[in-house]
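Why show two proteins at once? Because comparison is the fastest way to build intuition. When a single record is shown, students tend to memorize it. When two are placed side by side, the eye starts asking what differs. So, the first record is below.
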Amino acid sequence: METLYTSLIVLLFLLAIADLVVGVSNDAVNFLNSAIGSKAVPMRTILIVAGLGVLVGAVFSSGLMEVARKGIFNPELFFFDEIIIIFLAVLITDILLLDFFNSIGIPTSTTVSVVFELLGAAVVISLLKLYETGEGFSNLRQFINVQNASEISLGILISVFVAFGVGAIVQFISRLIFSFDYQSKLNYIGGLYGGVSLSAITYFILLKGTNSITFIDQNLIEQILESKLWIIGISFFFWTLVSNVLIQVFHLHILKVIVVIGTFALALAFAGNDLVNFIGVSIAAWQAFLLWQEAFLASGVLPSQFLMDGLSGEVQTPVYLLVIAGGIMVVTLWFSSKAQYVVQTGVNLGRQGEGQERFRPNALSRTVVRYSVFVGQTFSQVLSEPVQEKINSRFNFPEKALGYKKGVAKPAFDLLRASVNLVLASILISLATNYTLPLSTTYVTFMVAMGTSFGDRAWGRESAVYRVSGVFNVIGSWIATAAIAFTAAGLLSLIIWFGSYYAIGILLIIALFSIVRSAVRHSRRVKFEREHKKFNKTDIITINEMTKESSENIVKIISGVNDLLLDVVNNLGYHDLNRLKKSLKTQEELEVLINKLKDNIFYYIKSLEDTNVEASKFYVLTLDYLQDMVQSLAYITRSSHTHVSNNHKNLKFSQIRDLKSVQRDLDEVYSELIKAFQSSEFDSIEQLIINEKKVLNKISDLLQKQIERIRETENSPKNSKLYFGILLETKTLTKTSVALLELFKEYYEEAKQEF
């Protein structure tokens, strides 16, 4: 029996390692957003600073493990075997839940997830205990720490609104003071700004550290905390002096210093606060095992007879376990692509200016934006015109404000906003810690970033509906986190209760399969985005470069069109509905690709040399032809799928044979066309146009042939409709290809002159 439970504890620690990986991937958004979004320092430096903060914070987290042992439920009322079931259900749920949100790039709260997982599992086990003993379910409150769980939930909810509101107000005032052209002002008041910011961050680090350090005398810690006003005053004086020296003597950018130190501070807070969410459950299980093992060796008490009174007291976590956990977190931070994906969500929603929007607008976001515009217009009428002009002048956004350089990706927002994000998040978390108020570091940092974006007028009329939709999506996922965590952990604990070790094995296999599948899908998405990243260039300035870029686009689209047309014709011949469903998915990917290209038209044209109007026209026409090709193929794919899905008669063998003949002819033309664009050798364009026109003639003959069939033998109107539709759209597809070739022929001579 002892060996069995030893194996379960080992399993729980292995699950804790997996939980660390997925948890860090999700929570990296807490402390990386501002530094990465503003490009304050190189990425390597950001990761080094954040890694140091995580390691230090991991050591500081020793005293914060109580929430897993006694924060949500009363352990003295549970037996050892019941506690193990709760912890197993919590860890398996947490890994799957966080991995899911990582995969879709949504930052959620590991605090909320673990709290509601513990709550869900404990509630179910408590109800089962009450049922077995015949007690009424009204006694559930004695098992669950309802007040603590309610306070945590309410505190987290309030912190979301406070963080957004404070972020918006402070950023608006900061921009009024500094504007976007803040560099000259920093020479005069940068020292004062640095003093305020760095003293706030220093107090934040000191408060977070002293609240959890276990190897410093408690009396000294109490003296430090009682002298906080003196500490803030001395820190302000010291950092103001240091900031002035850094600015005036060493000519350092004080905002970069604030961002780097702030990143370290938030990384420290993340590890100090959230490490309990990843390893607290496993450590609590281990401590429970040690308590039972001691009793078992002394008196032979069974797991189902040993109450966990010992978990109610103060139990310190060994420092070496914290260091190991910190090391795993740092490695994950450096190498997890999912962490980078989650960070992109916050950076994208908070960026200054336009760009590709990730989230689609919905009815709620449209309504909010519409009424916000109305309120803004009403409020502006209260202010005099000179005041409005003065305020608007502070929000003029020159490209140099983000350090924009041709050919180099510009920051998502400037250093002023990045520093405000970090300082405000530090202050809010410090205040909550000082007054022992529960909050989620993820929610606070994310909502501060969204609030500063709003206050900085980053959500303009062109982007507001998308950004608001994104924020609502993230907040909705937070609500879903609590509901899913509670339900899933409760369900898993129920399964383990009745299924015992067989259920544990099956659940582990399911969890492993789910994580592997998620990793494979994420890898495919990363590969897809990497392949299409070239479509986001912002420094194409000549017609020669435009021709090359268009060639790459054409190769990608035409290759997809050619392959998909072959699949659709073959699948239609086999009358295979499942394969046609896959063809539909491929078609949707082509449509997404062409839409991304068209979304970038404005930015391509914007980046061209002022005199290169013809290159702009060339690029627009090229994309228009490619879109026409994709739309023609979309009709062929969808009509074929609909025909088979409705169980209509198969096309006749002769009809399939004719379609395959046209497809083969097109394949020969497209293969040569792809080679031409890949090699940028367009001398064969004339011959390709001739070959395409032959295909058009062939399609015309087949149309005439089908008309004769209808008059003589054809008796299926659905078949005729599908066959005519495919031929006519293939004809349009071919005509568009000819037009595209003629366009390149027209511009080819001009492109050659630039070589």
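Second record. Ask yourself what differs from the first in the token line.
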Amino acid sequence: MMQSNPPGPGIGIGVAELLQILDGSGLRLASHLTRIRLPLTSPTLHDPLGTETGRRSGILLGIGLHPAAPQSAEAVRNAARRGFGAVVVKSLGLSVETLAAVADAEGIALLVVDDELEWRQVDSLMNSALTTASEADSSLSATPVGDLFALANAIAALIGGATAIEDLQTHILAYSTVPGQVIDDDRREGILGRQVPDLPENAEQYASVFRAPGAVRVPGLPPGLDRLAVAVRAGVQPLGSIWVVDAAADLDSDALRALERAADIAALHLLRARSTADLARQQRAELLRRLLEGGDDSRLLATQLGLDAAGPFVVLAFQPDLAATGDELRLLRLIDLIAIQCEAHQHNAECVVIGGEVYALFSGAAGSDPTGVEALAARVADRSATAFGITVRASVGSVVSALAGIARSRHDADLVLLLVGTLPGAGSVASARDERSRLTLLELAEIFRRTPRLVSEQANRVLETDARTGTDYAKTLRTYLDCSRDSAVTAGRLSVHQNTLRYRLRRAQELFGIDLDDADDTLTLWLSLRVAEFD
């Protein structure tokens, strides 16, 4: 049996200790050796196509290792030969006993993570746990994982200032209660409301904290006090922040370094708190995505989501105006804002991100009240603009009475988003209820595109001539018909004299063979010109 070289006594972290720190995160031991100690180095990613570079140590993340594949057993043996102390795999719903026996024979540990966890999250969990063991002060690392208030008190006692731990939505998750530490009104208001006060300087301050590689000093605006602050991250993934009041403005570089070490501990706490909730949220989001896309299994999906099949239902869609890259942090904060606001509007309201849009589904009393949903959308749009500087468009789909209609409500919400983004003077929020006529025209435009023979022959000739010569016959005819053939109203809307309008209409009839006295021809002409606007 080959035995990987473990760290010396007291050095590194034992497998049992690692499992205790990450208890509840979806990690378990499949093999039987529990006294193996692992060095405090970041996990290594398994790369079957890569070139081996001598002995290694620590944990190997077995990405792509299938429990039933013969090469997986050889990969575990090879990991032991190279010096790794543990291999992490996913069971994929299969037995891992064979791999566990190989690991026991080689003297290393086989760890299994839940299939639903992303490898990126596994890597973050491992890094946070190992960083905790290697860098944390004993006063902090002794804090029970999950007790954020105890951690806040430990940080406050260590650094010497009142401490608050926040999430990405600037909710105060925990705060210190060490006697005698000075606080200011902003801190007092935040504790009372469990929410950081909405101040003009917030956006710039938080941006500086999350841009910085470590802890920073944030000057207070009188009468506010200075603070030390640090972003809490798991790898590169932001989780929240820690803020320490510097009442006498005398906390030094040692305090900054201590705060950075505290951030590693806080990351573990926040990940522990989020891991189970995140997994459940991801599963529910996937169910909602399938429900919004429609299909024959809508009743089963609704049952799994706990929805009352009796309805009614309505879909709310948000479209943030964000850059393609570089706005991940602001998007995360926006998604949190939407989720919290939707939960406040209806308990257990579901949200999911599909493409570039965020969708929410409301049912029952909330589903039958599109006015209330519109008001919610307006609050989110306003809050997003003031707190994050993000322009958000929102649309409310049709209210539907059956599960099978949810996909229709989502479709209508998508169409309304198109209208909100293209119509001049449109606000940030619109509803299918108010845009029903335009939605009809929008869908007719799609039908006309798929069936060109439906388009009026005269309309085609008008549009082609305008495109070729720069004339405006289509607008003249469309406006004239929009105005119920009232010359005075049409001339006013086009800002031309009535004689000019009459000349243009007469010329159009001559050029394109249009008979405005034929009701059927006029209807198809107007409809063809009208839906052409939606191209």
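One difference worth noting in the second protein: The chain is about 50% helix and 15% strand.
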